[in-house]
Fold:
Amino acid sequence: MFTLITLPYALDALEPVISKQTLEFHHGKHLQAYVDNLNKLIAGTELEGKSLEEIVKASTGGVFNNAGQILNHELYFSQFKAASPVISTGSTPVMPDLIGHLKSQIEKQWGSVDAFKAEFEAKGTGLFGSGWVWLQANAEGELSIAQYANADNPVAHGFKPLLTFDVWEHAYYLDYQNRRAAHLQSLWGIVDWSEIENRYTK
Structure:
């Protein structure tokens, strides 16, 4: 049986980037609903007892949607760290702590971290409807930025998921209303790059 992930920070720790109220709804209600739904859907089936990754790879329909959303949200919520506070240049948060193998690969493929950020934000802003924008890696460690609609994710397509920004409206509407681009831009200030590096190198 799956349970709701425990956040590795206090509900108000990500403010002003993500408010306590948004986390209470996004984590405590939306994600909890996916957990409850998946547990009901797989009870007594051959998928009961399997990992989220196994279920995502083996399922379709409602089971896939709920398992995918749990996997996506667990990676999303665990990639942030408390704002300390967010340092800004104008309205653009400075992206902290990007080091190591991942930084080298980003610079190799995009030329600069700024170029990578620009493409990532553009793909997040440009995704029509609900979904996710991901930084993903293939088996050789090559990176790509992908848009996935609804509950879809890199795992379902054979890639390693590294970093994701949620562009479902419930992820940002209480704080940013329809300003998706502003929401995406602000998230750089709370990314825990040591966690993303660990995902890349493990």
User: Anything to note?
Assistant: Helices lie at 20-42, 52-58, 61-77, 100-110, 113-126, 173-176, 180-187, 193-201. The CA atoms of residues 131 and 167 lie 5 Å apart. The longest helix spans residues 20-42.
